[in-house]
Specification:
The chain has nine helices and 18 strands. The protein is an alpha+beta fold and 394 residues long. Among the domains are: 132 residues, PDZ domain (Pdz3 Domain, Roll); 127 residues, Thrombin, subunit H (Beta Barrel), CATH 2.40.10. It starts with a helix and ends in a 16-residue tail after the last strand.
Amino acid sequence: MERRSVYQLSGRQIIFLAFASALIAVGATFFLSNFGSVSQFKDAASVAFAEDAPRGISEPSAVSDEQNSIEVYKTLSPGVAFITTSAQSVNYYGEEAERESGNGSGSVIDNQGHILTNFHVVEGASKLTVSFGGEKVYPARFIGGDPDTDLAVIKIEPPREGLTVIGLGDSDRLAVGQKVLAIGNPFGLDRTLTTGVISGLQRPIRARNGRPIDAAIQTDASINPGNSGGPLLDKFGKMIGINSQILSRSGGSVGVGFAIPVNTAKRVVPQLIQFGAVNRPKLGAQMQAVADLAERGYRLPVENGLLVYQAIQNGSLQRAGVRGITPEGNIGDIILSVENQKINDLDALYRLLDKKQIGDTVQVEVYRDGKSLTVPVKLLPTPQINSPMRRTQE
């Protein structure tokens, strides 16, 4: 009986949980409707990227470091886009106007005119233009964006003379100390080159929506506002990362910059081009970390895991029989692990599910009524729900 009393929440506590879920972005997960079937994902994965070494760059060991930097810049800078964004605004008299709102960088990734950049560079823009160092300005359109990885794709109509395509490397084969080159448009200075080394790997950073971006590349190559979205290149001229963030109290470069691994882009970009968004499998529930609840004074029968607050109707967990909190105040199931990996917070769940596809079945261990049991959960498209706690774009 003592265990049961611990294993219950009062109606007031349930209301508090709901309110807390609405306020804490990282304390709840909400789920997008499906944008395509599993077969569509296979089609998206067939999008081809340039991976051959670019012509014009000598074998790095055969030339000086200076010559290598010169060749990489000369060969690939024509493929680095200067992106200018505009946004609609309303003046004091209610008149609408379109004004320049910012700029950033991007990389041409195919001959069709697709340009890879950061999501935060183009987010909210009503108009996009691109230039490549000359007076010619190309109108661009937004193709798709993924706020969870801070990546986006825009597109221009390719000119007759063609485009310089930046090939993609392999970010899983990097080493600390390796030479890197960043090309971008810091402070609006067109196609600026900075060089340095990889100063750290597997750095955890967060997108602006709070979602974790795993395995970021840390570099001491100077990265400043305007570099966002531009390529981080290796000495062979292949893109290994997409420059995204700096760690700085002043807002300028202090030698600690972060790039999103190019292998993340390889996984995301095909879906952005085909569907306009990334379709990630999710469990279809609103959840709270047990540790977070414990810090706020709630007593639960386990120390770690995710408390299922509500399993969304017809979502993956609900179909599998996983339970949320009942109207009577009986606590919901607590997820302990997924695929034998301990799940102590939402970040761990995001990382695991990011490697899965809709249609996969995962083994979910839950704590229920004093014992643990394993439930097979098929990752299904999750219907949209109307909830006062549901956040736009979640």
